[in-house]
């Protein structure tokens, strides 16, 4: 009786969540498409990544400030504004490292390196978690390192992968292996990206407040990056870049609209409605599908099987590093905790895994 009664409720829940799954997939596809467009544009023009990121942050901060109006409503206390401004500095540093990693390693590696923030789960377990799970998390960290090492030696490329990759379509340019040292830059960017998300969750407990504080974060990141962009201009390395970025080309518009503005609201919707956080295997699965499509469309040096092997290993590592204690939890609690629903209910001194 109870089984038959639960089926319609499950079907209704799945039907209601379908639009949010579509929003999540389309939003991430558009964002990843903007990354490939940006890589194609910058690798051909040789423009300064610092100048480009700054020129994208300026209109993005204006859009967020106009939409959220953080000066309206209840005044924000210093206990929320000050960490948010500091978080803007972390965001600026993240964008610069991510852009340099994109140019050095390509869009595929730069996108997968964003999931390196899952290592915060290992740090959380080591400092505050139960010691019974620490070895599982260390094993997950080892799996992540293996995946990134395989990416660094070219397993995702047709040129260097030892695995057979079907398809005879031409590639625009064969990628050179870049090694472990170059991987440090995008991996560090991924850890910084996770850290800024942690700080945003700690400071803002409500979704509306999170949007207001994010507007301050973007504006703060723009201010932090301003002197570095001006320094590039003074040195002459970016004297023409900021002017050229004013033109409404696709790489610029897509980075602003999809890579900075839209993806924030998409992540908010998926986290609130689907209980799906960024550093999770399900999120990685969506990104993997989008990357495969765009690698083929852009005729990149791409090995499907090599890439899938790296993605599976990375997904297993993320699953173990972000797993929580399940022995004393109900199945529903276990599912929700593993996907970050109760992040805001954790003690303030504990890092979310």
UniProtKB/TrEMBL annotation:
It comes from the Eukaryota. Keywords: Membrane, Transmembrane, Transmembrane helix. This is Zinc transporter 5. It comes from Zea mays. The chain crosses the membrane at residues 49-67, 79-97, 109-128, 140-157, 183-200, 212-230, 250-269, 281-298, 304-322.
């Amino acid at each position: 009786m109870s089984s038959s009664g639960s089926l319609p409720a499950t079907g209704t829940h799945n039907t209601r969540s379908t639009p949010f799954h579509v929003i999540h997939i389309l939003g991430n596809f558009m964002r990843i498409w903007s990354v490939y467009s940006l890589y194609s544009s910058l690798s051909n023009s040789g423009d300064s990544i610092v100048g480009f990121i700054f020129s994208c942050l300026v209109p993005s901060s204006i859009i967020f400030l106009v939409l959220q109006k953080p000066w309206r409503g209840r005044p924000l206390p210093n206990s929320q504004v000050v960490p948010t401004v500091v978080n803007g500095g972390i965001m600026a540093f993240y964008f610069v490292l991510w852009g340099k990693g994109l140019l050095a390693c390509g869009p595929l590696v730069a996108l997968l390196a964003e999931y390196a923030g899952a290592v915060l789960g290992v740090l959380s377990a080591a400092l505050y978690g139960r010691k019974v799970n620490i070895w599982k998390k260390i094993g997950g960290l080892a799996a992540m390192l293996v995946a990134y090492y395989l990416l660094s030696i070219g397993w995702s490329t047709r040129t260097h992968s030892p695995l057979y990759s079907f398809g005879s379509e031409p590639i625009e340019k064969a990628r050179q292996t870049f090694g472990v040292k170059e991987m440090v830059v995008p991996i560090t960017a991924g850890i910084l990206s996770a850290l800024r998300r942690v700080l945003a969750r700690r400071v803002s407990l409500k979704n509306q407040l999170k949007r207001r504080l994010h507007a301050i974060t973007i504006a703060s990141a723009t201010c932090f990056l301003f002197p570095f962009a001006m320094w590039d201009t003074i040195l002459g390395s970016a004297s023409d870049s900021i002017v050229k970025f004013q033109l409404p080309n696709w790489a610029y518009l897509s980075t602003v609209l999809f890579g900075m503005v839209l993806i924030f609201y998409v992540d908010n919707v998926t986290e609130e409605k689907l209980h799906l956080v960024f550093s999770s295997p399900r999120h990685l699965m969506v990104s993997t599908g989008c990357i495969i499509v765009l690698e083929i469309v852009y005729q990149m040096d791409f090995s499907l099987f090599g890439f899938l092997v790296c993605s599976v290993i990375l997904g297993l590592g993320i699953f173990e590093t972000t797993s929580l204690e399940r022995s004393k939890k109900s199945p529903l609690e276990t599912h929700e905790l593993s996907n970050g629903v109760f992040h805001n209910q954790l003690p303030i001194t504990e890092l979310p895994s």
